[in-house]
Amino acid sequence: MYPAYPWEAAFTAIEKQCPEYDLANTDIVICSSTLGNLNRFARGVDKSFRFVLETVGDTVFFVRRENSPKDLIPDVRGYGHTFLDEYTTWRPDLAGSESHQRIIQYVFGGLRFLLRFESDGYIPEKGSQRQECSSSDGQRRMPNKTLEAEVASLIGKLGGDHTPEPTQSSGDLKVREGGRLISQSAIIDIKTRSMFDFQTRTVKKEIDMTDLTPRLWVSQIPTLVVAYHDRGLFTDIRVQDMREQITQWERDKQELLGRLAWILHELVQYAKSSMTRLEVCRTDSGPLQIRRLIGDAPVALFPVLKARWTEDDDLESSGHGSFSSHDNSCCDIPLEAHLPEHQVSHDWKDHKDYTASSSEKRGSRSPSCAPRLVAEGFPEHSMLMRLMSLF
Fold first, then answer.
1. Integer distance in angstroms from the first to the last C-alpha of the chain?
2. What are the start and end residues of every segment in region (Disordered) (predicted)?
3. Rounded-to-integer distance, Cα 380 and Cα 336, Å
4. d(Cα 323, Cα 298) in Å, to the nearest integer?
5. What is the pLDDT averaged over residues 318-343?
6. 56, 230, 241, 322 - which has most CB atoms within 10 Å?
7. Shortest CA distance to 104 belongs to which of 240, 237, 247, 216?
8. Distance (Å, rounded) from C-alpha 253 to C-alpha 263?
9. Please, how many CA atoms are within 13 Å of residue 165, restricted to the half-sphere of its CB?
């Protein structure tokens, strides 16, 4: 909604709701999408992504770079949005809302995180008169109807026009307070899946958790709602408590999490050492590229808000505070030819184990697969332009 300053709305909300919050107590500000992409990179999953590293005070912002809203994703089929439209509702005072964004804090690998993610809803506390799934910012209900009535209602609703009314924005950020605090333990993630596998031409009933469990771990979402449909008709809706499965995944993936923590520590170090903002990008199965930023990339916070958080009145004198010519004067140098790997390759066992957090020490083992840094053809003193590869 605010592409020029992606973290503006979040930090304005924090300023209103938690005026005592101190940005100095946070090492990384990141969204679940970016952290999830780094998690996939650590797992060796092919995925293209990019984001900007920007230092504000002593905190590093990971600013996701979006594709054009005009880009089309081919061969996408599903009923996820239809399911949310039919089985959930917003309270009247929240009509027209696009999404609900939550912000949580936790410590991972010795780094203090502030993470933003989109929430599908929440399950009310026990004792409610009816079973509901409500959004933290409003109310999303799972109707308490018989299956026959549910099907009849669904068919009737699907016959109408459910195109959302276009919303108008003045371009100015406006704050409206309301609602109540919802515990993170009540938050849910909703997924829809077809009972029929079109590739194998067989009936399936179990959802693939390979990528879902890491996503729930990143956002610390304890409950998963899976709705199975037969050609768009939802007949099987399951509510799964994922806490034990997420905990077991964390125990089993200590090697992976060690790699992820190492990557995050390296990125933080690069960002703090740079005189300009940096862009991090990856294409398909390629390495993680770190380069000096060029062009009009989003800035984490509006300068006035940034000054309030850093108590720095002279933003233009800072390398990261300058959003004009200083950043854009740097060339985007392609990272292709590189020096022999052995000159700068690192043995993982020589690095600190970051998998145990400072607040909760967990047993861990040193990963046998070491991430490697491959230096590019730059002067020796230039330690910012690196090619990061795990394999």
1. 37
2. 349-371
3. 17
4. 10
5. 32
6. 56
7. 216
8. 15
9. 6
Residue 258 has pLDDT above 90, yes or no: yes
C-alpha pair distances (Å), 357 with each of 28, 108, 261, 370: 14, 5, 10, 20
Q: Which residues pair with 54 in a beta bridge?
A: 61
Tracing tokens 């005009």 back to the chain, one arrives at: 70
pTM attached to this predicted model: 0.69
Could you tell me how far CA 246 lies from the centroid of its own chain? Answer: 17
Tokens matching residue 144: 């308490």
The string of pLDDT tens digits covering residues 76-107 is 555 555 667 666 667 676 677 778 899 999 99
Both tokens assigned to 175: 């704050």
CB atoms closer than 10 angstroms to residue 223 = 20
Inter-residue contact 258 to 364 (CB < 8 Å): yes
Report the distance separating Cα 23 and Cα 310, nearest Å: 8
Task: Give the span between the Cα atoms of 7 and 351, in whole angstroms.
Answer: 32
- Tally of CB atoms within 10 A around 197: 11
Token output for 187: 């938050």
Structure tokens at 80: 């996820």
